Amino acid sequence: MYILALDQGTTSSRAILFDREGNPRAVAQREFPQHYPRSGWVEHNPQEIWESQLAVALEVLHKENISSHQVAAIGITNQRETALLWDRSTGEPLGNAIVWQDRRTAPLCEQLKAEGLEPLFAAKTGLLLDPYFSGTKIRWLLDELPGAREQAEAGHLAFGTVDSWLVWQLTRGRCHITDLTNASRTLLCDIRTGDWDDELLQFLDIPRPLLPEIRSSSEIYAETAVDGFATPIPIAGIAGDQQAALFGQQCTSSGMTKNTYGTGCFILMHTGDRAVPSSNRLLTTTAWRIDEHTEYALEGSIFVAGAVVQWLRDGLGLISSAAEIEALAASVPDSGGIYLVPAFTGLGAPHWDPQARGLLAGIHRGTTAGHLARAALEGIAFQVADVLEVMAGDADLPLAELRVDGGAAANDLLMQFQADLLGVPVVRPRVSETTALGAAYLAGLAVDFWEARRVLASQWQTDRRFEPSIKKERVEELRAGWRRALERSKGWEF
Question: Were both Cys, which of 66, 100, 239, 397 would link to 81 (CB 3.0–4.6 Å)?
């Protein structure tokens, strides 16, 4: 028997089969188009999301030569803040989904801030008033799509994040649900009650009947009713991608922390049963809800991480593939005193400066491509250290170690420098598919594929542990130089 994890991401849909030991047995992936109708707008076609996700689910069963009756359950993880509307009777979307990266609702967010509403939203949802989150996207769809508001008020429409859309499709419209982790990213959910908040709905003018039922992250929601599966499969786990990665990394007690090194970085610290407010504009979010018990996390996002390596490749031509960055950086003993602040699209947590821009400081005649490559990797690590410093302070929890995943976590030089900066071990797991694994774990627990959470903790294994290797005094010198460069990157305007 296996667990099938559906990992629906921003640029591709993936499916992974996991066995009882938590090992990935087969993987399938399919990219789908990105749509950019205007500057700052990013959209996905909901049918392309669904068709690509179903295709890889069937492909992965074929690869392993198994049928649906050998799948104990399906777990779903997804891009969290992407929003769409569809017709309840036909199942047809009312247009494209608005992707989490989309910035079209910035004026509405500014209007709500001007009305003094951000403290209320922050207190209830743990989020900032930003176009990133789903609530203002729903408002825009209702206001801008012809007839949408009237249909919504009449109860004819359904809203969903991508998890809701997939479950609706998998069950042929029999199940309109989301889990608490996805609901908590909408600006509409009170993370302490775990339910939609009528006051917030009123401020955003969103009819409650539009919304899915909020369920836990691990329970049997429904069975599949879609062509392609010979027998129905229980759908039993749902979590947003970063929460799924936190669970896949088995960061299940207070203070345990993971960082996903992707295009950007997503850092989550488990805070137990406390929804910890941040004084540094970090996000307070739900980690998951299991057996009616809700656990929480602090989250900090870094806009540019792996993307700086892509820039060195595509923009400067210093490398021909991302994998070459480590060897180039290792060709020099250090960065030669230069700092690269990769604020290409502004700075995220904890600085929150949209006017910041990238900066290269300390260049001299002896600076080489190797120094630039090393400074780029170090710039990623400095940003992570900045977030973790304030995160530990907000939570009043010491950082004992950092568990890592994502593409750039394979870079040993970066991981070692990260450990040096933090002064704690950086730990890379043996199974790198942590997001999909988290979804699989949540689903498997619900159907007793794994009998208890302690079994999952025993399965987690280390690939490599990076121990701090430089003195605190040197770390302080390095971080002081970084802070000087960082300040010079702030407040730039075109």
Answer: 100
